[in-house]
Specification:
The protein has 12 helices and 20 strands. It is an alpha+beta fold. A 6-stranded antiparallel barrel has the order 11-14-13-12-15-16. Strands 6, 7, 8 and 18 form a 4-stranded mixed beta sheet that branches. It has a 3-stranded parallel beta sheet with strand order 5-1-20, covered by helices on one side.
Length: about 425
């Protein structure tokens, strides 16, 4: 929608082809239906939260940054607000208002929208005199009903594989491959983690706020963060875990010589307290519950549902009186509270992933224009590219920035035509 609106504003005849019955179906789900449109922290925070290929986005972000999308949506009749962590949402808390704003802009700029329409392949010809020899020149697309739509430029904004029910079924990767592009290894991103320990299922639905997570691969720390965690029937989820998942190694999870990498997650249930402070806290709690059984003396420290699990993991007899617990045993329990161990077996699937990691190789795309280096007139934007970021509005900012640059560039390449035509964009 951003690419189409931008190209149309510059005078191009634009057709937006959408295989769903309405625009913005995936956007509707983002931010739990609230749509975290961007992050107001600015350039430095944006690039710090990118997971791969950050340098590729220098031009796109400079062309259309966080403030630019805020201005765009505000002018389009969607007022915004900024919340904790500089996350920007529509003031109404309704993602539908963001989609409505884009729909109004597309209509005002004369974009022709084809709904419930699927593209089956790209059309191209050999580009005369192109370097390298044999480079393709895009001429349009073929629809699933057999119709050919001619175009001077085609922008692929097909998304990835996450939430396939919204239409993200990997079509763009196949189109890119047909044009000669490489597609890097694909995997679910910003996704819940599957955990080996069966006790997680006992805690399904329990949410822990203000905890710290440390993720390690083969002993090397790859992520450390603070936030909210949610136990599920297969492991852990929540904003903190989704962010952690973005730092997992790519590929099939095997390391050198085909050995499977060991992934561990350590949860600090009391990050505001160091070991000494936590030990003193336990001493105080045990003193106030002197004579009570260990299993009944933790109510002020831990959520009720978590206590039986922690008692079991500690190895301390739940019937033990707290005044009988030794200093060594008490400190061992404090260590468990600070370093609750989990073994990561893998991630949930694309159905639960916020984004797709991997995509069209950015080495084969011009970062200054988003145009393919393999086929003239072919542009890319958004999740179809090998770009991804942490949670907080950064992935949508990638979409806005690349979409705007692709729309702009697809028109500017025709600005020298003698007849004044800006071309047709699909």
């Amino acid at each position: 929608m951003m690419a189409a609106a931008t190209a149309a504003a510059l005078g191009a005849r634009v057709t937006l082809i959408e295989k769903n019955e309405k625009l913005g179906k995936k956007l509707f789900l983002t931010g739990k239906g609230r749509c975290n449109v961007t992050n107001a922290a600015g350039r430095e925070a944006f690039f710090a939260n990118l997971c791969v290929n950050g340098k590729f986005l220098y031009s796109a972000f400079s062309d259309f940054d966080c403030q630019a999308i805020e201005d765009f949506l505000t002018r389009a009749g969607c007022p915004l607000k900024t919340e904790r962590g500089d996350r920007v949402f529509p003031r109404s808390d309704h993602s539908s208002d963001v989609i409505a704003a884009f729909s109004r802009e597309l209509a005002a700029r004369g974009v022709e929208v084809f709904l419930k329409t699927r593209v089956s392949k790209l059309l191209w010809k050999e580009s005369a005199g192109a370097e390298p020899a044999g480079q393709k020149q895009i001429t349009g697309v073929v629809l699933s009903d057999g119709r050919n739509l001619e175009a001077s430029a085609v922008i692929l904004c097909t998304g990835g594989l996450s939430y396939p029910s919204t239409g993200s079924t990997g079509d763009g990767y196949a189109f890119a491959a047909e044009a000669g592009h490489s597609v890097t290894a694909l995997s679910p991103g910003l996704v819940p983690l599957r955990i080996r320990e069966s006790w997680c299922a006992e805690l399904m639905g329990l949410s822990l706020r203000n905890v710290e997570a440390c993720l390690r691969e083969d002993g090397r720390e790859v992520f450390r963060g603070f936030g909210e965690l949610l136990f599920t029937h297969f492991g852990v989820s929540g904003p903190l875990i989704l962010s952690a998942s973005s730092r997992l190694g790519r590929g099939d999870g095997t390391g050198k010589k085909g050995r499977k990498t060991e992934k561990t997650l350590s949860i600090d249930l009391k990050p505001a307290l160091d070991m000494e402070q936590l030990d003193r806290r336990l001493l105080r709690d045990f003193g106030e519950n002197s004579g009570r059984q260990f299993k009944n003396a933790l109510g002020d420290l831990l959520p009720a549902r978590l206590i039986p699990v922690m008692v079991r993991l500690s190895g301390i007899d739940p019937q033990t009186r707290v005044n009988e617990i030794t200093r060594q045993t008490r400190r061992a329990f404090a260590d468990l509270v600070k370093h609750l161990p989990l073994t990561v077996e893998g991630t949930a699937g694309y159905e639960e992933a916020v984004i797709t990691r991997g995509g069209v190789s950015v080495r084969e795309v011009n970062p200054s224009t988003m145009e393919s280096k393999k086929a003239k007139g072919l542009y890319f934007a958004g999740e179809v590219l090998d770009l991804d970021a942490m949670t907080g509005g950064f992935n949508l900012q990638i979409a806005w920035s690349t979409g705007h640059l692709a729309g702009q560039s697809s028109v500017s390449r025709f600005s020298g035509k003698q007849n004044g035509s800006k071309g047709e964009i699909k």
